[in-house]
Amino acid sequence: MLGDLFYEAKGRITSKRVIDLNGPKIEGSYFVEGKMREIEVEEIGTFTTIPTSENVFYVEGKDIVTIKRSGIIATVEVRGISKHGNSSKVIVGSNFYRSSKTDKLSFLNNLVGIHEAFIDNNDNISYKVWEWK
Question: What is the pLDDT of residues 110-131, one digit of tens each?
Answer without folding.
Answer: 999 999 999 999 999 999 999 9
